[in-house]
Amino acid sequence: MPTATDIREQVVELAREFAREKIEPFAAEWDRTHHFPRDVIDEIGKLGFLGMCTPEEYDGMGLDAVTYLMALEEISAADAAFAVSIGIHNAIPTTMLVKHGTAAQKERWLKPMARGELLAGFALSEAEAGSDAAALRAQATRDGKDWVLNGTKAWATNAGTADLMMIMVRTDQPNARRGAKGISTFIVPTDTKGYKAAKPEDKMGLRSSNTAAIELTDVRLPAGQMLGEEGMGFIYAMEGLDAGRLGIGAQAVGIARRAIEHCLRFCAERQQFGKPIQDFQAVQFKLADMATRTEAARALSHRAAARKDAGEDITLYASMAKLFASETAMWVTTQAIQLFGGYGYMRDFPVEKLFRDAKVTEIYEGTSEIQRVVIARALNRPR
Ligand code: CAA
Question: Each residue of 245-302: pLDDT tens digit?
Fold first, then answer.
């Protein structure tokens, strides 16, 4: 009988091998050509990596959160864009369905998602509702037993490549707005009439992940496609984002780690003033700081994950992990470009992609400013 430690080692090793062989050699080309590698996602899905956090009773791997982060770090180190495409699926729609799905919804959506047969995404933001997510305006209206959805969502990962999207819309009516309590979540199969993903956004980084707006035009859904209770969609989205933010922590750590690995090799080879630049103390100190901050980001993320595994509320800790890890990734990749000098600024060398990929970790799933808001609010809450 394998122990939890054996399983962790096996899963992380499998993720590392898959990333080394099937992702990393192609990541730069995917980035250049905006290629979304659905075939490779399907392949990793068959190995169980689209059901990492899904309980075994729903055909998932049932991994603990720490192991999930370790596996995601391996994939992120190879390609952060690939990591977000599967990370969103594993963290947000999966968490929402596990917590709030009916038996029928779990059978119909969660199980095939975990088996890697369906890819899912999440759509909360709108053009005028980013940080202020509760201000969203897409509307669902009842029509007999159905709901009819109209509106436009923005910047949704996997919008044009997923088989289903978890979409947050208003179910309160314009004459009786209820703020955050007027939002509900719908499970929307992307082949539903009236669902249209726009052209993928032309992004600075994560260029091979699919990010797009969604036009919802009279999207008719039976009542059974609503997740959980009417009016609870904002809270479900926030719970999903707690899990998602942990994943962004691991993604950022993976980016930073890979930048350090490239720098160690480069600084050993690059000769200036008659010796490898690694022999200069200025370079050594920079590398020491990069490694120390990355290890601290990993430790903070794993600590937050361990709290999740212990069944504790992680809102505060997930925000701390995401905030610290994303700012670490941005700082580390900035130092990496500096160490590479002129080479660092060139597309032919790997660190500029890491720098571009790092930036969004400070923005999506809640900006660094929003993480600080969440943290400050938690600190001020009466105990
Ligand atoms: N878990 C459970 N419930 C939560 C919660 C959480 N983490 N956070 C808030 N809630 C609940 C509150 O308790 C409250 O419920 P009650 O009234 O019953 O107490 C309700 O939700 C409303 O909460 P707030 O009053 O705190 O709401 P707010 O309007 O002030 O917003 C916010 C809070 C933290 C700023 C929130 O809007 C937020 O996180 N904004 C950022 C949104 C975000 O991360 N967007 C990213 C979109 S996903 C993405 O990036 C795209 C992608 O595909 C990668």
Answer: 999 999 999 999 999 999 999 999 999 999 999 999 999 999 999 999 999 999 999 9
Which of 185, 241, 248 gets mutated to test ligand 1 (max ligand atoms within 8 A of its CB)? 241
User: Hey, which bits of 190-234 come out as E strands?
Assistant: 195-197, 211-222, 226-227
Cα 179 to ligand 1 centre (Å): 12
Q: DSSP per residue over 85-120, as a string?
A: HHHHHHHHHHHHHHHH--HHHIIIIIHHHHTTS--E
Cβ of 129 below 6 Å from ligand 1: no
Looking at ligand 1, which residue's alpha carbon is closest to its atom 26? 374
How far apart CA 79 and CA 30 sit, in angstroms, is: 10
Q: Which fold has domain 235-380?
A: Butyryl-CoA Dehydrogenase, subunit A; domain 3 (1.20.140)
CA dist., res. 334 & res. 247, Å (int): 22
- Whose CA is closest to atom 1 on ligand 1? 239
137 token code pair: 């305006």
Instruction: Please report, for the chain, the start and end positions of each structural domain, with discontinuous segments joined by +.
Output: 4-119, 121-229, 235-380
Give the pLDDT confidence of 29-72 residue by residue, as tens digits.
Answer: 999 999 999 999 999 999 999 999 999 999 999 999 999 999 99
- Domain 121-229, what fold? Butyryl-CoA Dehydrogenase, subunit A; domain 2 (2.40.110)
Inter-residue contact 23 to 40 (CB < 8 Å) = yes
Pocket of ligand 1 contains residue 370 by CB under 6 Å: yes
Rounded distance between C-alpha atoms, residue 118 and residue 383, angstroms: 42
Q: Which fold has domain 4-119?
A: Butyryl-Coa Dehydrogenase, subunit A; domain 1 (1.10.540)
Region of residue 108 (phi > 0: left; psi between -120 and 50: alpha; otherwise: beta): alpha
Counted residue by residue, the chain has a size of: 383
